[in-house]
Design brief:
It is an enzyme of class 2 (transferase). It catalyses: acetate + ATP = acetyl phosphate + ADP. It is found in: Cytoplasm. With 397 residues, the chain is of the alpha/beta class. The protein has two domains: 145 residues, 2-Layer Sandwich (Nucleotidyltransferase, domain 5), CATH 3.30.420.40; 184 residues, Nucleotidyltransferase, domain 5, CATH 3.30.420.40. It is 39% helix and 19% strand. The protein contains 15 helices and 14 strands. The strands form two sheets. An eight-stranded mixed beta sheet has the order 5-4-3-2-1-6-8-7, sandwiched between helices. A hairpin with a 4-residue loop joins strand 1 and strand 2. The chain is globular. The termini are close together. Bound molecules: adenosine-5'-diphosphate. Adenosine-5'-diphosphate (ADP) binds next to helix 10 and helix 12. Adenosine-5'-diphosphate binds next to helix 10 and helix 12.
């Protein structure tokens, strides 16, 4: 069957049409600047990208343009919309309500709306995409796949914050974790690659992209993860601060005369490796700057790697050991220098880095630890769209 995978943000929408039998991408692209002016990027498999500037005042119009492109006589991937059998939506926050993907109906939409508080920028935008698709494809089944669902198996010891318990009871303030679709996909895939039962392994997944998080997956279940109530906690990221002393908030607000919400913008958008380096959030730019002598860029890269290594250590402790470490997402899949630096901290676990394989691994599956390592380390490309497609098929078939 053909599944349209939709990831809808407030002003953009990414899509892929996937044939679930062959797991091949028939077409993909994105709509940008929805509500501002509008630009459609569309690419049929095997052809060049097409760019179309056209007004997209609403998400419904954006999705209509995607559907028109998919059935376009010349470059369409399908002949008619009846060839779209299901739609899989990425939904960011499912709170404690959703511990797995589900077929979208009115009750599910209501449940997601109840979690809007926890992800005010993402959930409402996701739902706009769901509603627009429902209006344009009223008879096509839709599935919601939550970023938080995979982490719902965490025990209370891992998800409770050291705050008055009533904040958890009244407001559901707790660790939720994100990138769940990726952590789930990569942990299962690495078990296959290692050739062992998923349920018998202790796996640490390092999802290192612009947003970055680590998860501990023990016997097939997530037991801890570095992101929290929001994706701001945990690792140092492209522009997010990750963990810090909460008192810094008030301290800087007073010094710089900022409101809490302005300070949160700083923590989300102007911090992380970009904030430290003053150069960029992109590791390619940081590496180039560090190589030409920029010390702050070098510090940003080192601090990033150090934090990842600290989380790996923490999760090895949390699981009383680790069998496999997997690197994924933009940095994890491509940046051999970052992987080498992180691995440099992990000798105590009995891991050796196969420098040669590590150096030449960019975006492919590969074991980058030495054959005699006690713990295996792998690079495993993530594929959240394919994971959403699989979940969708499993629920609508
Ligand atoms: P997100 O989905 O969170 O936006 P990605 O997983 O796409 O992030 O990762 C994007 C980041 O990956 C870029 O900001 C960059 O730092 C890093 N990256 C991508 N390609 C490379 C590369 N070839 N070498 C080093 N870093 C890379």
């Amino acid at each position: 069957m053909n599944v349209l995978v939709v990831n809808c943000g407030s002003s953009s929408l990414k899509y892929q049409l996937i044939n679930s039998d062959t797991e091949s991408v028939l077409a993909k692209g994105l709509c940008e600047r929805i509500g501002i002016d509008g630009r459609l990027v569309y690419q049929k498999a095997g052809l060049d990208k097409e760019f179309t500037e056209a007004p997209m005042p609403t998400h419904k119009q954006a999705i209509q343009m995607v559907l028109d492109a998919l059935v376009n006589e010349k470059t369409g991937a399908i002949k008619s919309l009846s060839e779209i059998d299901a739609v899989g939506h990425r939904l960011v926050h499912g709170g404690e309500k959703f511990s797995s993907s589900c077929v979208i109906n009115d009750e599910v939409i209501k449940g997601v709306e109840e979690c809007n508080d926890l992800a005010p920028l993402h959930n409402p935008a996701n739902l706009i995409g769901v509603r627009a698709c429902q209006e344009l494809m009223p008879n096509v089944p839709m599935v919601g796949v939550f970023d938080t669902a995979f982490h719902q198996t965490m025990p209370a010891t891992a998800y409770i914050y050291g705050l008055p318990y009533e904040y958890y009871e009244k407001y559901k303030v707790r660790r939720y974790g994100f990138h769940g679709t990726s952590h789930s996909f990569v942990s299962k895939r690495v078990a296959e690659l290692v050739g062992k039962n998923y349920e018998d392994l202790k796996i640490i997944v390092c999802h290192l992209g612009n947003g970055a998080s680590v998860s501990a997956v023990k016997n097939g279940k997530c037991v801890d993860t570095s992101m929290g109530l929001t994706p701001l906690e945990g690792l140092l990221m492209g522009t997010r601060s990750g963990d810090l002393d909460p008192s810094i908030l008030e301290f800087i607000c007073q010094k710089e005369n900022l409101t809490v919400s302005e300070m949160l913008t700083v923590l989300n958008k102007k911090s992380g490796v970009e904030g430290i380096s003053g150069v960029s959030s992109d590791f390619r730019d940081l590496t180039a700057a560090a190589e030409s002598g920029n010390e702050k860029a070098a510090l940003a890269i080192e601090s990033f790697c150090y934090r990842v290594a600290k989380y790996v250590g923490a999760y090895a402790a949390a699981m009383n050991g680790v069998d496999v470490i997997a690197f994924t997402a933009g940095i994890g899949e491509n940046d051999d220098n970052v992987r080498s630096k992180i691995m440099g901290y992990l000798g105590y676990l009995g891991i050796g880095l196969n420098e040669e394989v590590n150096k030449k691994t960019h975006g492919d599956d590969a074991m980058i630890s030495t054959a005699d390592s006690k713990v295996q380390a792998w690079v495993v490309p993530t594929n959240e769209e394919l994971a959403i497609c699989r979940e969708t098929v499993a629920l609508v078939k």
